Amino acid sequence: MRWSTGSAAPSPRRGSTWPNGRGEFLDTYRTLTRAVWDAFAPLWHQADALLGREVERVGVASVTGALDTVINDLGAPVRYADGCLHLPHPCPQHATGPGRRRFVLVPLVSGFGACTYSAEDPDLIWVGYPLPGLGRLAHRSTEPHPPPAQDRLDLVLGPVRAALLRHARRRPSVSEAASLAHITVSTATYHCDRLAGSGLLRRLRHGREIRLCLTDDGAALLDLLA
User: Fold this and answer.
1) What's the pTM value of the predicted model, to 2 decimals?
2) Is the pLDDT of residue 188 over 80?
3) Are 166 and 172 in contact (CB under 8 A)?
4) Rounded distance, CA 152 to CA 112, Å?
5) C-alpha R_g of the chain
């Protein structure tokens, strides 16, 4: 996928004529673009704080070895498993050759479900994903900035998954973990599946119950960040 800014419109040459009504058209166009910017400018300015949080979240995950969890929680059509990045469509032949490429994350302030990626560049793969918190920001008018995260584990995993990982030290059932985290059982099941898929949590059978248990990686992440 390649993006182009397009060609610049040619400048009028000396002696050329513009269509009639050009002044009215340009005035209307200027008014329209100003109205669009006035409507979206507050969201763009408030998104600066979210972008700062996202840079910190990804940075902490990078240095603590938890970047796979971040990738699998982007809301983008890519996933990371078994040491490989899985894309929903086949890559071009020239993009599947040997060698290491940079992986670039691009948070998008352009829609709550905007997702895209490209593997065409021989030097890198980039993934664009919705900026976390953008939806809440767009529907909130009283708070100009998002509330700060509680700690580094929340920054990496999010508050719900961080809470489930902390409670997993006690080896609770899914229903017990849901009660401790103040969420529904179905929500807890979903997040536990994602944590298990990232290698931070596993399920153990205890009699007739299934208990949640930390993996070595999950315990190490807790010790490092919690």
Assistant:
1) 0.48
2) yes
3) no
4) 25
5) 23
